[in-house]
Structure to design on (217 residues):
């Protein structure tokens, strides 16, 4: 996956918000952000739209863009919804994935495992996203896939910012993928469902714990 300029800006601003560098109520000015990243205002506007969709900032007429308070209860609700939707996708993928799709999933899993020791955050996270996307598509239910992808996009800043900051998380994540991918390839629907549900719940605990610590809650 290729990251656009606006996505990179959005990701870096999101990390600043989650880590408390940018405080609730703080104003974000297009020109100042553009100068910080040495870009025009256009990708900054796009980045603001992405951040607004995640609930990290709000834009109001005549009041500009403002960082808003993170609500951990709301974040927990989103992760809970994601765990259920992705678990259903995993169950259906175990049943419906075609031979080629299973092979593609296996190849992605092997590539992810091979880069684990390289400690390249961006590459590992990219393979992680590709694996989940392949499972969404493998469910062969467009509505579920779109819902899952939308939830992952909304939660992406929280998952990305905490992915490599809580203990030995990449290795833990990889072990969970071991069970998940094996269940799908074996067409074990219930095991795939439970493995995905537990996997996303574990990710949620990781993210919420980290954010709570950074906020001193």
């Amino acid at each position: 996956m290729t990251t656009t300029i606006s996505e990179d800006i959005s990701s870096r601003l999101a990390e600043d918000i989650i880590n408390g560098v940018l405080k609730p109520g703080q104003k974000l000015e297009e020109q100042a952000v553009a100068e910080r990243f040495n870009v025009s205002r256009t990708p900054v506007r796009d980045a603001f739209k992405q951040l607004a969709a995640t609930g990290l900032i709000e834009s109001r007429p005549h009041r500009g863009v403002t960082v808003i308070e993170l609500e951990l209860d709301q974040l927990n609700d989103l992760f809970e919804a994601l765990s259920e939707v992705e678990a259903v996708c995993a169950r259906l993928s175990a049943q419906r994935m075609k031979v080629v799709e299973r092979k593609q999933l296996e190849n992605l899993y092997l590539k992810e495992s091979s880069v684990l020791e390289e400690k390249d955050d961006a590459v590992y996270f990219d393979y992680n996203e590709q694996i989940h996307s392949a499972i969404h598509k493998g469910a062969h239910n467009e509505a579920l896939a779109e819902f899952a992808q939308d939830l992952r996009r909304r939660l992406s800043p929280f998952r990305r910012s905490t992915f490599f900051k809580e203990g030995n998380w990449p290795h833990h994540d990889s072990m969970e993928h071991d069970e998940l991918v094996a269940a799908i390839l074996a067409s074990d629907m219930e095991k795939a469902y439970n493995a995905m549900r537990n996997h996303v719940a574990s990710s949620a605990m990781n993210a919420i714990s980290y954010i709570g610590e950074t906020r001193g809650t």
